[in-house]
Design a protein that fits this description.
The protein has seven helices and eleven strands. It is an alpha/beta fold. The chain binds NADP nicotinamide-adenine-dinucleotide phosphate.
């Protein structure tokens, strides 16, 4: 895929996967834009005027307005959504707030953002929208993550169904399902963080670097596939479905 001089918006640009994507795209001469929630990315490849604060827990109409403004004022060609949070813990103990929060951050806000991006790309006549979901969107990967897992299943199903609405246009949608990636996601998790960190400590020998996963995501975006398994490990795991 040609990244050179493309205007690319990375949603969740300060995250482990988001920042690895930003670095690779910058090195491929793309013009990168990004959103963050708490901490503005500080890597020197960022132009700070290309960075915007965006919280998925905010008002959904305001999220759409903000996204529309970024897209139109910077003539964005490609959007990659790499933001999300994890909740670990027994479902029966989960508060209603945490159920709602997990769906808002991991499913509803991405879908609301997808609507703004799709409208903009369809009017423009071209564009590519990609969502980083997870292998958990194809198979239950870790016990005690029922709501997180179902939100990722939702994202995968959403993008696959949405792809049918883009047939015959120059607009593409795709979704990737990485397996375990070494990032701060477990440290940022909600719920039983200590329990989650213990499980991750055991599982992490099979985890991959954010750089390798970012490389696989970008290669997959160059293919015609809607569903992208970015690494050999993700491909092997997906066969368990
Ligand atoms: N790490 C893995 O093993 C793994 C595997 C497969 C898929 N994934 C998926 O990949 C995506 C990125 O995860 P990561 O591993 O890069 O984790 P990460 O390093 O914790 O990054 C998460 C990103 O999401 C943003 N975010 C979290 N809550 C948000 C909110 N309420 N509003 C807006 N942005 C929010 C974070 O911003 P702040 O830092 O500013 O809060 C950060 O940019 C997630 O959807 C995750 O489910 C991760």
């Amino acid at each position: 895929m040609e990244w050179n001089q493309k205007n690319i918006l990375i949603i969740g640009a300060n995250g482990g996967i988001g920042s690895a994507l930003a670095k690779k795209l910058f090195e491929s001469s793309a013009i990168i834009y990004g959103t963050y929630r708490r901490t503005k990315p500080t890597e020197d490849f960022w132009d700070s005027s290309h960075l915007f604060e965006l919280d998925f827990e905010g008002n959904l109409e305001e999220i759409q307005t903000k996204i529309q403004q970024i897209l139109t004022s910077h003539n964005i060609d490609i959007v990659i959504l790499a933001a999300g949070s994890a909740y670990f813990g027994n479902f029966s103990q989960m508060s209603l707030h945490d159920i709602q929060h997990t769906y808002q951050v991991d499913l509803i806000s991405p879908i609301v953002i997808a609507q703004s991006v799709l409208k903009y790309f369809l009017e423009k006549g071209e564009g590519h929208f990609h969502i980083v979901a997870a292998i958990a969107g194809l198979l239950p990967a870790v016990k005690n993550m029922a709501v997180y897992t179902s939100s990722k299943f939702g994202l995968v199903g959403f993008v696959r169904a949405l792809a049918m609405e883009t047939v015959g246009t120059q607009v593409r949608v795709s979704v990737s399902c990485p397996s375990g990636v070494i990032t701060d996601l477990p440290k940022n998790a909600l719920g039983d963080k200590e329990g989650f960190l213990k499980i991750i400590e055991i599982l992490k020998k099979n985890f991959e670097s954010a750089e390798d996963v970012a490389k696989g995501i970008l290669e997959g975006m160059g293919s015609r596939e809607v569903l992208n398994l970015p690494t050999e490990k993700a491909k092997a795991l997906s066969k368990r479905t």
